[in-house]
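Incident log entry.

Two folding requests arrived from the same account within the same minute. Monitoring flagged them as a possible duplicate submission, but the sequences differ. Recording both here for audit purposes.

Request one:
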Amino acid sequence: MAEAESYFITYDIKDPKRLNRVFKTLLGFARHIQLSVFFGRITRQKMIILKERIEEIIEDEEDQVIFIKLCADCSEKITAIGTPLNLKKDNTIII
């Protein structure tokens, strides 16, 4: 079984229709944790599929999606101020 890695995914999409499509696409791979931020444990193969789907939706000149891969040690050190955030290894988030 492929090893899943931790990612933060954030986006800035100009068109509301494209925004909705990107949002729904990301929901299939990660958890929505803030307005334009997702967190997920994603395998390399699924990340390839996700990026291909996002590329089909966005307009390169107007939109941006950022994928931030976290090292295993880094993902264990995530902290939050305000509403508590617990990012579990199984992609479950408890708030």
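Request two (distinct sequence, not a duplicate):
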Amino acid sequence: MSLRVSQRGFTLIELVAVLVILGVLASIAVPKYYDLTREAQNRGALQAVTEGKACLTIQYAQFFLEKAAPPGVNSLVAAVGTTTNVGDYTLEFVPLGGASSQIKIIASGRGNVLGTNSGLWQLPAN
């Protein structure tokens, strides 16, 4: 039995260097992935807010055509409902107090979706 003098392969130092490089790349990539996921969920919530605004606009137009008078903020929210589901998000319609003619729309994720966003809807001027 004779030992082969020239064996080919990687040394332990080379393998450790590769593992360190992979660890550094993973420490950069994983947080970036989670940031992108969170941003996508917040953009999904923003889309849900936009759909809520469209729902309020349609309800306003229907109310105006049927009653021949513009609805108030509270009657509009009552017609739409205080909460509704749009995709993976729950929309909450909150009339702002006082003489305000605005409705705040809050979108929050349901289940495993964590995105949130909000927006304002203004009653059209008469």
